[in-house]
Amino acid sequence: MSYNKYSKEQKEKILSRILSGEESISDIHKETGINANTLYRWRDEVKRTGLSSTTKYKKQKIGVPKINF
After folding, report:
1. CB neighbours (10 Å) of residue 41?
2. Residue of 22, 43, 67, 69 with fewest CB within 10 Å of its CB?
3. Signal sequence: where (predicted)?
């Protein structure tokens, strides 16, 4: 059985703050008490897989631009 200490909504809210670039992970760690390594892991995971469709930081597919000659 898996155990989630933080709700999906709480995690997404914190990740949105991290990804906005307006606050450092260190600042968020001090405010929330969530270990900085956990925040870095969440951030790295989001960069690989994206957030849910309910957030503005959903991972976008990036294709190679087509060049016509």
Report:
1. 11
2. 69
3. none
Would you say residue 1 lies in a domain?
Answer: no
Range of the domain at 24: 8-49
Within-domain flag for 68: no
Long-range contacts made by residues 57-60, C-beta under 8 angstroms, separation at least 24?
57/15, 57/16, 57/19
pLDDT, tens digit, 9 for 90 and up, residues 15-54: 999 999 999 999 999 999 999 999 999 999 988 887 664 4
**Chain-centre distance for alpha carbon 42:** 6
Of 68, 23, 14, 7, which Cα lies nearest the Cα of 46? 14
Residue type, 1: M
Query: Mean pLDDT over residues 63-69, rounded?
Result: 55
pTM over 0.85: no
